[in-house]
Each structure stands twice: as C-alpha cells, then as structure tokens.
Write a structure and sequence with these properties.
236 residues; 6-stranded mixed β-sheet; 4-stranded antiparallel β-sheet; 7 helices; globular; binds adenosine-5'-diphosphate; translocase; P-loop_NTPase; nucleotide-binding
Amino acid sequence: MLRLDQATVTYPNGLTALQPTSLAFRPGEFTVLLGASGAGKSTLLRCLNGLVTPTAGDVIADGVGSIVHDRRALRRHRRRTGMVFQQHHLIGRLTALDNVLTGRLAAHGFVRSLFPLPRADRRLALAALDRVGLLDRALDRADRLSGGQQQRVGIARAMAQEPEIVLADEPVASLDPGSAERVLSDLHRICREDGIAAIVSLHQVELARRFADRVIALAHGRVVHDGRPGEVGPRV
Ligand code: ADP
Ligand code: ADP
C-alpha cells in the first residue's frame, strides 16, 4: 500500500542518512523500526509522509502515485495518514477533546473555526478518546494529563482522522515502561481492530517482540534485518 523504491536521503550537509532502500508496507501490518540513535529511523518515517524528500528514488502510495513528484498525490496520501510524534504536539491549554478535533480538521485539508463544533466530528473525537480509555478526561486541559495520557490523546487525534496508515516516530521514548506499554498496547489494539497499517519506531526490543508483526532494523541508514519479531537477533 506504501513503498519505497530505492529511496535515498542525503542531507544538505552531505550525510547520507538513508542508503538506497526498497521496502513495501502492507495493509493492516504492524511494523516496528528498530535501530540505534542516528540509524535513520526518523528519516525513513519522514520519507513516508513527505516531510523529507528523497534525493533519489521514489515513495509510492497505492492508488495515489508518487508522493515525491506529485503534490496532489502527497496531499491525498497525508489525508489518509495519521501521525504520532515523540513530543505529542498537543496544545496544553486546550482540552483533550479539542486537541483530538484539531487533528480531524487538519486531516480534512481546510481551515475552519473549532467552534461551533460539527456534531459528527465531536462524536468521532469522543469515540477516539474512549478507545484510549480517556473519555472521562475529554474536557480536561491537555497539560493536566500525565505524559502517557497525553500520548494516548495523540493517538486518539491520529485515529479521529480515520487513517489507513499510522506513522509513529518514537511515540514512547519519553515515557516510563508502564506508560510506554499502555500507549503501545492501545495503538496496537486500535490498528488491529480497524485494519490500520502502523509503522512505529522504537528503541525497546522487548516492546517490538510483543507487538510487531514485522521488525525492520536499521543501522547506518541501511536495512540490516527485515522479518518476524522472533527472528530479531540478540544484537538489537
Ligand atoms: P554500530 O556499529 O553503530 O554499533 P550496529 O551494526 O551494531 O551499529 O547496529 C546498530 C543497530 O542496528 C543495533 O542497535 C540494532 O538495533 C540494529 N541491528 C544491527 N544488526 C542487526 C541484526 N543482525 N539484526 C537485527 N538488528 C540489527
Ligand atoms: P534515528 O531516527 O534512527 O535516530 P535519524 O533519521 O534522525 O535517525 O538520523 C539519521 C542521521 O541523519 C543521523 O546521523 C542524523 O544526525 C542525521 N540527520 C537527521 N536529520 C538531519 C538533517 N536535517 N540534516 C543533517 N543531518 C541530519
């Protein structure tokens, strides 16, 4: 559904963060990217949503085309792609619900006021919060929530876009192990239930083993392992 075709990224400073890489991501598959800091995980994820433009090669979304060479294709692709970041990018003084709604509005590609809230959007946003166990916190300010709860709001925000693909760059890097596990298990369950493909970078091998259908390990901008989590070697 989404693939890299010999995609290569050389940053302006001359560093090649992604060596020519071809990978195909399948619908509904939960893929974990592993690798040391600087291995190129973030660069690869950013290629998949057009935040980084490959200096060579291509990124192709099924039914849409090249997101590298066609701005319209990129816009359509982004509309069906949910993003979750390490720093959850919530607006602290807005409620959890309004934060989820901002994602929904952004996904629809037009600017409109948050108020009055369209009723269908509001229902979807509340349902998304319910799925991460935060319905009772919907009207609390985001900055009153714990780090793990904020990241679950980030997941609800991505899910309220009704995506086909979720890209998550180190979504649990700043969380304690218990919260990290909860965040990943919510993300994993929702993706499974809705048939959403997820591509998630992590640095905890244990979490990859538990949740991934597929593990791709990167080192120095190259894929050094691509397979089932049970096969991930002790070097990771
Ligand atoms: P460095 O030379 O920087 O130590 P490595 O080649 O040891 O780099 O690998 C960096 C990262 O890539 C590791 O932390 C691991 O996550 C991943 N990796 C390397 N080799 C493998 C492998 N055979 N199987 C799975 N993952 C690997
Ligand atoms: P990871 O997510 O695995 O930590 P990154 O994709 O962030 O890896 O980085 C891969 C390499 O590219 C690193 O050496 C990093 O320092 C470098 N890098 C990342 N972004 C830039 C940039 N904008 N300009 C130059 N080098 C960058």
